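(Fold this chain)
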Amino acid sequence: MPESVVLVKGETEYLLVSLIDGDPTQKDGKGGIAQIGLDGNIINLQWYKGLNAPKGMALSGNELWVSDIDRLLVIDINSRKLLRQIAISGAQFLNDVAIDAQGRVYVSDTFTHTVYRLHQGDLAIYAQNIQAANGLLPQQDGLLIAANDKLLYIDHNKKIRTITQQLFPEADGVQPWKKNSYLLTSWKGMLYLVDQHNTYLLWNAQAENNYTADILVDSETSLLVVPGLFNNTLRAYRLDYLQ
């Protein structure tokens, strides 16, 4: 059950993929993280194991931040050692993780409709009553949130505006694209392009039962990687045609 994917760049480049591998709500110890080559071959299916239901991930230097139901984990990608964990009291379904340019860490809780922010060791609620808050993307002076059928923008003064409300329910990942545009998914099988003026449905894979969870987009190489959640697959595309 792959949910989220990050690209590790350097002398050797590879993907890290969070694997729920069980009930997404249960602390069953079945979850983990896999290491996948850019050629699609599995390098290490158990790169990190013993998690519960890991979902969102974000990289900050050599630190991999991972959400795991009601806690945030920080793993050193070189040693694969757990550096620390942060329990979040009251959390039920921690989902996406994002880190801004100032090192502030954001994590959404889809079940409690909450977004938390961790800054210099202090954990606080950043936004509440965001229905089905999921995908997060930091901006210069705020945060984009994919939530239910909407893409929302909340600034650091907590003012909220709607970018689009034309998404299929169960909005999931949101990633930057080009010229102030974004690629978003609904995990049910939709991929959207959203710009300042319009919302475009790029594909609808529901009929094929292809799922589209928390995507990776690398604009430098026009690479899109889509975790297939209930299909147990990763699909990769080049988006050279998409301007």
